Each structure stands twice: as C-alpha cells, then as structure tokens.
Amino acid sequence: MAKGGAHMLAECKALSNETRLAILGWLKDPATWFPEATAATDPSTALGPEPATTAAPTRAEAEAGAGTETGTGAGIATGTEAGTEAGAGIEAGSGIGVCAGLIQRRAGCSASTVSAHLAILQRAGFLIATRRGQWIYFRRDEERIRAFAERLHHDL
Q1: Which of 78, 84, 139, 147 shows its CA 20 to 30 Å from the CA of 51?
Q2: What gap in Å lies between CA 127 and CA 129, rounded to an integer?
Q3: For 15-67, what is each residue's pLDDT tens digit?
C-alpha cells in the first residue's frame, strides 16, 4: 500500500466510530452544541452540579503558560476531575476550541473513553488541541478535513 493510502486508511478508521463522528459534528458548530459554555460569562460559576474545587487560572496565568499546541493527546485532562468551570468551556472569540470536559459531558462517556476518541481524531489530523492552564481545548482542523474530503473524492 502506498504511503498516502496508509494515511487515508488511518483517517478513515478515525471516522469509523459514531462518537468520533458526533464530536466532529459538534465542533463544527460549538455555539449550538455547547451553549452552557458560550452563555457563561462568570468564570466562578461551575458547570456541574458540584461547585468547582479549584480556582480557574487568571487570564495572565493562562496566557503565560498557555497557547501550547499539544502533540498526541495522550493523557488528556478533561477538566472534570479538577472541577471544570464555565469560563473554561469555550474561549469566546479566540477560536481555541471547546474544553474536553464539555465534550465528555455531551458524549456521555467516561473521561478515559472521550480522551481516547479525541486522541485518535487528533492523530488523524482532524483536531487541533491547545492547552490553556489546566484545560485542553479542541477545535476542528478545517484545512485538513477539507483536504481529506478532496483526496477521498479524487481517489475514489
């Protein structure tokens, strides 16, 4: 099999799961699928039924240690363990993406299962992950998705 064919096979395998397809769909329009994050303006308001157990990093702390594009996505912290806060859900207007904890809630799966799904989509090139403080945000890589669809159309 040609090198390009092996990569296409890996991309197709990443799309062969209903939850991973749903995640890509949700991230196409995060304001619709994650309204609890976009509507939240008070970062001290917890998203879950339990109050947040740790304080969210200040904007200065987040910017100082943030903006790091992550590699494989292994060991992704969803934020639910540390008390995801409303301000951590979606970075408004920044295009940074959606916090993994919110994706987990929407998917209704365990943190480890969603972490594995996100890592597979990231390795296939469909997602970009960015760390901000203790949270990792995910967004679609529209250019890679478009290129995949064009390659699929051309090759098949």
Answers
A1: 139
A2: 6
A3: 999 999 999 999 999 999 998 776 543 343 333 333 332 333 333 443 444 44
